[in-house]
Task: structure prediction
Amino acid sequence: MKPLYVVKVGSSTLAKGTIFAEIGQLVEKGASVLMVAGGAAGIDAHYAAIGREQPTLTLKSGDTVRHCTSTEIDHIVSAYRLVTLPQVEAGFSQLGLSAYTSIAAQGNLVSGKANKPLRTIGTNGRPRLERDHRVGVPAHVDLDRLRALLGAFDVVCLSAPIADTASGSPLNADADVIAAALAVATKADHLRLVTGTAGLLADPNDPQSTLPHLYAGEGAEFAGGRMKQKVRAAEMALSGSADVAITGPDTLSQESGWTRFWPAREPADDLQLLTRAAAIPSVSGDERELALYLRQWCTEAGIDAQIDPAGNLVATKGNGPRSLLLMGHMDTVPFHWPTVWEKDLHLFGRGTVDAKGSLVNFMHVLRDVEVPADAQLRVVGAVEEEISSSKGAFYVRDHYRADAVVIGEPSGSEKLTLGYFGLFKLRVTATVASGHSAGKDAVSAPDALATSLSHIRSAVLAEAPEALHAVIDHWTIKSSNGDEATGILNFRLPPGVDVDVVTKAIPHIPGTSVAILRATPGFSNGRSGPLAKAFTKAFRANDIRPRYVVKKGTADMNTLATTWADVPMLAYGPGDATLDHTNEERIGADEFRTANSVLSTAVANWFTLTRGDNS
Amino acid sequence: MVDHKITVAIIGASGYTGGELVRLLADHPSVHIEFLSGERNASATVGSVHPWLRNHPRVAKMRFRPIAQMPEVDIAFGCLPTGALPKYLSHVSSRAKRIINLAGDFRLRDPEELRNHYPDSAEVAEKFTYFVPELSTEVGEGRFINLPGCMAVASIYALYPLFANELVQPRVVVDAKTGSSGGGRGTSDHPAERAGNFRVHKPHGHRHSPEVRQAITDFTGQIPQLQFSTYSLDVPRGILVTGYAQLREGVSALEVKRAFAAAYVGQPFVRLRSAPKKPQDFPMLKAVIGSNLAEVSVNVRADEVVAVCAIDNLVKGAAGQAVQAMNLITGIEETQGLPTTAVGP
Result:
C-alpha cells in the first residue's frame, strides 16, 4: 500500500516552480500524492487578461475578501482551468510525471455546504448582509473516483471551487481547508501545507522565529491574514490520522522551516517523544517521515544520527570497540485513527506497543546513558519488520556489527525474551491426472495432498518434535498437468533446530512437489551471558522478579541470527504484546517508565560487566 | 434553469420503456406529465396497464389516449416500437417544441444502414441529433433528438476511453447480454422457454452494431473494426457487455487505467470500478438494476484488454437516459429525478 501525501501548494510557491521536483521525489520514493493548488495569483492573472475588475467585500473586522458572486464564480473557475491547473500540469510534465488536474467541483469530487450570508460593511459604511457570496466548506469527498485517479496518475491535483451539495453554482473554498478535508476523508498519511514563510512564525517580521511544535488551539494567536486559514486547516486535519505540518519557505524539505501540529499533548516531558513518534504514521514502506523526525530529535539532543541506504535510522554514541546494538523497528501495520492520551494514563494509537514504545525507550537510553570511552551504543530503527521483506534487518545484518544486541519488541517491562522460534514454511503441491476420480482406486488431488502433508509432517517432526505445525491455506486448480491440490504447511521451529536438517528430512514423494517459502531458524540465548546478567541485575535493582520467555513468533532477531549466530541477543520492550496489530493498541505511561528504568540500568550494567573484555 | 414545470407527453407510454419513463417523471420535481399516448390501450388507466404504478397518487388514474389527442407540450418522448414514430412524426412535431426519441428510428446516418435496419425512417426529412448524455457536447437549438440503444450505449461506455485515447488496435469484439424486457412487451419469446435459459440472440447483424461503430467514430475519431454479438439472459432487466481488444504496441496497463479514470471522473452516472478484487466487485446487474448508473471496469493482462459495462436497460439504457438528456438540454441539474442506487437483492 502506497503512503498518501496531501500537499497544499500556494500560487506563489507554484510560481517559483521548485516544489514540483520535491513532489516528484515523493513519487519516486513510492508515494501517492494528492496536491491542492492555491489560485490567488492565477485569479489575478486571469482577471487582468480579461480586463475585469475583481470585486471585493469589506468585513466587519476590516479585512477585505474577494466577492464571489454567482457571476464571478464562473471567472474564478476559468482562472483555475486556464491559468493555475495548466501551470501544474506543465510543472509535472517537465519531470516526466503524469498529473490529473481538475477543479474539485468537477463531478462532485469535493462538495460542500454554502456559508451563511456574510456580514459586511457596505460602500456607505453601514452594515450589510451579503447573500450572493458563493463560498463554502467541504463536507463530502467522492472517494471512489479519487482513489481511481490516485491509482492511475503519479499526481492528482485539485483546486477550488468545490461543488454545492444543494446544487447551484460551485462554491469557492479555501485551498488549505480543502487539503485538510481531503486528508481526513482519504485517511492520508501526511499533510503538508506549503507556504511562503518558514512555517508559522512567532513574529511575522522575524523569518527565524519559526514555531516548531504546536498543539490544537495554540496557533491562532500567532496567525494573521492568510495564515489564519492555514492554522485552521492544520487543526481540522488533526481529527484524521495524518501527521500535519506547515512547511516553507516554498519547500517541503527544510526541516527548520516546519511547524508541526500534534494531535495529543503528552502528560509529562518524558512522554513527549513517545507521543510524537506514535503520531507520525509509519506503515511498512512509509517509515521515512518518522526517520526524519527521529534524526532531527537526535540532532537536537547532540546525538549523531543518519538514515542508512535501507532507510533505517541509525543513531550512535561512542566509537569504542565494545559495541551494544539496540535494534527496534519504525514500521507498523496499517491504521487510521489519531493518537490519544486516555486520562493521561494510556497512550492509544498504532505502534505504541509494536514497537514504538520499545524504540523510543532505546532513544531515551541512548540520550541518557553515559557510554564509556572504549564502547559504543547504537540504536537502529529498522524499516519493514512487519512485512516479510525484513529489509532493514537484512541491511543491519550485512553492514553493521555488534558484540550484543537487544531487540525492541514488546513482552512487557517485567519480562525478558530469550529467543524466538523459527519459521519453516512450505508450499506442497500434489498433482494427479484429470478425470480418474470416479475410477477404481482413483486418488483425488486433495487426497494425495493430505497424504503428502502427513508424510512431510511426520518427517519434520521426527527431527524437531517440539515444533508447532499447521496447514494455513489450501486450494485446488485444474491445469494442463492435471488436477493440482496445494497446501501451505507452516512449522514454528524451536531454537536449536537446524533448518538444513529439517530441509533434508523432507521426503521425496512421487507426484508431489515442495517449495520452501521461508526457512528462518529459531534463536535463543541462555541466561548466563553478560547481556542476560545485565538485565537480571537491572530487574533486581528495580524490585522486579522477571519472567523469561521464548516467543513463538519471529522477529528481526531471527534475521540477524542467520549470520550473527555467536552474538548474544535478547528482546526487551514495554507493552502488552497481545495488543499487537489490534485496534486496542495502547501503552501505559507507568509501563513505559518502568521499561526505561530497567533498560537504562541494564545497558549501564552491560558496559560494566564487559569492561576488560577487549583489554 | 427553468422557472416553470416542463410539460411532457409520452408517446407509447403503455410499453415497458414508456411505463418506466412515467415512473421516473411522475416524481420529477421540474416536470408535469401532460399526456400519455397508447393506441391499443386508449382510455385504460396507467395503473391497469402498469400494475407497478397503480399505487402512485397522481399517475395511477391517468388514462392513455390516442396520439391524435395530443396537446401542445414542451417535450414529447418517443417510446413507440421502432418504426412507429416516423408515421406520427409530423403530427407529434406540430405539438411538441422538442422530441426526444428513445427508439432506434433516427440513430443511424449511413443511408444504406438506415434502409437495412430502420426502413421506415429512410424517407424522413427531419434531422435528429444522436445524443449520449456523457459524451455529446452540443445540442444546439435542434428540436429532434434520438437517444442511443441500450446495448449500444453500454458498449460505448466500455469502449470509449480505449478509442478516445488511441490505446487499442481497431479490431474489437463485443458481446452484449440482455434481459427479456429489451424485447419489449410484444416479444414472442414465451416465458416458459426464456426461464432458465441463456441463449444466443444474434451472432451477427444486430442493428446496434453500426450504431456503436458510428458513435465511437464520431466521439473519438477512431474507426473500430467491430464484431458485435448479442445474447439473451433469463432476467427481466439488465445488460452486461464485455469488450475484448488488444493494446497498441507500447501502450501500458497504467495508461488504460488513466484513460478510464479521467474519462468518467465528472460523470455522475458512470461509475468506474477501479480496483476489483473479487468477482462481485466488477460491474454487475445487481449493482445497477433500478438505477440510472452504468458501472464500468477495465482489466489488462499483457496486451489483452477486457472492458465491462453493466446497466439497467430500462433506466440507463432508455428512460433514465432520456430524463438525464432532458435535464441537460433544458438546463436542469443533470441528476434531478434520477435514482443512483440499485434495487436488491
